[in-house]
UniProtKB/TrEMBL annotation:
<feature type="domain" description="Nudix hydrolase">
    <location>
        <begin position="4"/>
        <end position="131"/>
    </location>
</feature>
<protein>
    <submittedName>
        <fullName>NUDIX domain-containing protein</fullName>
    </submittedName>
</protein>
<dbReference type="InterPro" id="IPR015797">
    <property type="entry name" value="NUDIX_hydrolase-like_dom_sf"/>
</dbReference>
<dbReference type="Pfam" id="PF00293">
    <property type="entry name" value="NUDIX"/>
</dbReference>
<dbReference type="InterPro" id="IPR000086">
    <property type="entry name" value="NUDIX_hydrolase_dom"/>
</dbReference>
<keyword id="KW-0378">Hydrolase</keyword>
Length: 134
């Protein structure tokens, strides 16, 4: 039996060659601000909504730039269940701060990829290959 793919959208907020990531519920794993795409919502709208819900920053969905999609084994799910994460680049003057289920925000580089689930590690590698982060 094939398990359904988990479809999510995430915000890539980059400052000074570092990527914003979060930890949730005092866990040590780093995630991108993002989450599942709601019915009737575009991926860009989901990324913008999740940015407000998780790190209290406002971004305009229409101004978000699609970067790439990562499709890998979903963290904490049965083998064979994939996550398909659409990543969007965005900017905001707001200072990210933890909100809701997020316990901390972190500015990371590829040196932190060992703390990421597969989708986050792949994202860091791709952003470094694009020369956007260290």
């Amino acid at each position: 039996m094939t398990l359904p793919t988990i479809r999510v959208a995430a915000l890539a907020l980059i400052r000074e060659r570092r990527l914003l990531m979060v930890t949730a519920r005092a866990r040590d794993v780093l995630y991108l601000p993002g989450g599942k795409i709601d019915p009737g919502e575009t991926a860009a709208e989901a990324a913008a909504r999740e940015a407000v819900e998780e790190v209290s920053v406002t971004v305009d969905p229409a101004a978000l730039e699609p970067l790439f999609t990562v499709t890998v084994q979903a963290h904490g799910e049965p083998v064979g269940r994939l996550v398909e994460m659409q990543l969007f680049a965005g900017t905001t003057p707001d200072d990210p701060r933890p909100w809701a289920e997020v316990s901390a925000v972190h500015w990371v580089t590829t040196a932190d990829s060992d703390r990421c689930p597969p989708a986050g590690a792949e994202t860091l590698a791709r952003l470094a290959a694009l020369d956007l982060i260290d």
